[in-house]
Design a protein that fits this description.
Elements (H helix, E strand, L loop, with lengths): L1 E5 L7 H11 L3 H11 L7 E12 L2 E11 L5 E2 H14 L4 H22 L7 E2 L6 H16 L5 E4 L2 E4 L2 E4 L2 E4 L3 H8 L5 E3 L9 H10 L11 E9 L10 E8 L4 E12 L4 H13 L4 E8 L5 E9 L4 H12 L5 E9 L2 E10 L2 E12 L2 E6 L1 H11 L3 H16 L1
Parallel strand pairs: 1-6, 7-10
Antiparallel strand pairs: 1-12, 2-3, 4-5, 8-9, 11-12, 13-15, 13-16, 14-15, 17-18, 18-19
Helix pairs in contact: 1-5, 1-7, 2-3, 2-5, 3-4, 3-5, 4-5, 4-6, 4-7, 6-7, 8-9, 10-11
InterPro entries: Ni_insertion (IPR002822)
Pfam families: Ni_insertion
Organism: Nitrosopumilus piranensis
């Protein structure tokens, strides 16, 4: 199963995500009861009313959180909010994954404020996030995710709309996105995008929940069979779009999904030796794969197409290497989603002909069938050490590994 979070138009806030999870099928009564049980851990705050009701947002029916509070406090230490959230998740008997998730969300919020204001984390004070609605969002979402079993599913996030214009809060007015939003998204692989909406569309609480829920970003929906859809309404109304967060849950095949960058360039004036060296250097920079294809280009010139698969975090170094090593004047960049067979890495110690070797291999599983592939560098080393061909060595290693697997 896979869950797609779609904040491309209206962004994301804690109450929008919580509402969309209830609309997706999470147990509404379980969430409300859990939040009410957590109220006692948040001093000087009372939840007068909490419910979820259907509403219309620009023609789209969505579920909206109805929350009425009584709290005179407008400032709290981050550590106080963190303790309340941790005590709540412990008291509710949630899964370990759920408890870890909830704590990581408030940690991200505290860490962003600490870095922005240059103060220790235990000295961070919240103003906008000081209300019990921060606990309602984080604890409620944690309960809903646990109830739906989503901590064990693949979660994908489409580009996150952050809006535009300016935002005014306790520290004054600044351009949108505010510093907290930028800090929270900084170390994730999720993508943000501005719009012509003159409003903040993604809140710090929504951002910190999102980056701790998934690190998988895609530009469009994966191939999937839709099982259920959840619509969560925000509090604001906009003229140009529905202020609604969309969740789509469905099934894919047994393959995992990821997203990679593909770099390509044509070179027609370098030798095979340079191309061989180029492959080694680019792989050392963290590329997933490098391929070189021979062909004919304009004016009948023989050419080599260099094609590289890599991740976002490696792209700058790889492009630099590609240009410096080949002298190419341009590199094409595209993004591609992939289906990949789930695999795990293993390392075993084997004794062959009285000699000990460390052997790495990848084990894959697909439609109930398992297989493994020995790391070629290890296979080559053992083959040379035993003075046997690779064709002879591989069956020996596979036989020993199969013994250990069984």
């Amino acid at each position: 199963m896979v869950l797609v979070i779609d904040p491309q138009i209206a962004g994301i806030s804690g109450d929008m995500l919580l509402s969309s999870l209830i609309d997706l099928g999470a147990d509404k009564r379980k969430v409300i009861d859990g939040i009410k049980k957590s109220e006692k851990f948040f001093s000087n705050s009372t939840i007068k009313k909490i419910d979820f009701q259907k509403t219309q947002k620009r023609g789209i029916e969505a579920l909206q959180l109805i929350l009425e509070l009584d709290e005179p406090t407008h400032e709290r230490k981050g550590s106080e909010i963190k303790k309340a959230i941790n005590d709540s998740t412990q008291n509710l008997g949630l899964s370990e994954k759920a408890k870890t998730f909830a704590e990581s969300c408030i940690n991200a919020l505290i860490s962003s404020e600490s870095k922005i204001h240059g103060v220790p984390e235990d000295s961070v004070h919240f103003h906008e996030a000081s209300s019990i609605d921060t606990l309602v969002d984080i604890v409620g979402i944690t309960i809903a995710l646990d109830d739906l079993g989503l901590f064990d599913e693949k979660i994908i996030c489409l580009p996150v709309s952050i809006g535009g214009g300016s935002v005014t809060f306790s520290h004054g007015t600044m351009s949108n996105p505010a510093s907290a939003i930028l800090e929270i998204f900084k170390n994730s692989f999720l993508k943000i995008q501005g719009t012509d909406a003159n409003e903040e569309l993604t809140t710090p609480t929504g951002a910190c929940i999102l980056v701790n829920l998934t690190n998988t970003s895609m530009d469009y929906y994966p191939s999937m069979k839709i099982k259920s859809i959840g619509y969560g309404a925000g509090q604001k109304d906009f003229k140009k779009f529905s202020n609604v967060l969309k969740l789509v849950r469905g099934s894919t095949n047994d393959l995992e999904i990821d997203s990679v960058k593909i770099l390509e360039t044509n070179v027609d004036d370098i030798s095979g030796e340079i191309l061989g060296n180029l492959i080694e250097k680019i792989m050392q920079k963290g590329a997933r794969d490098v391929s070189i294809y021979h062909g004919i280009t304009k004016k009948g010139r023989p050419t080599n197409l260099v094609s590289i698969i890599c991740d976002d975090q490696n792209i700058d170094e790889i492009v630099d290497t590609l240009i410096l090593e080949t002298g190419t004047l341009g590199v094409r960049i595209s993004e591609s989603n992939r289906f990949i067979v789930p695999r795990t890495n293993h390392n075993v110690s084997l004794t062959i002909n009285g000699q000990s070797f460390e052997v790495r291999y990848k084990k894959s599983s697909f439609k109930g069938k398992t297989d493994f592939k020995i790391e070629f560098d290890d296979l080559k080393h053992i083959s040379n050490t035993l003075e046997k061909s690779i064709k002879e060595t591989e069956p020996l290693l596979r036989k020993e590994i199969e013994k250990m697997e069984n």
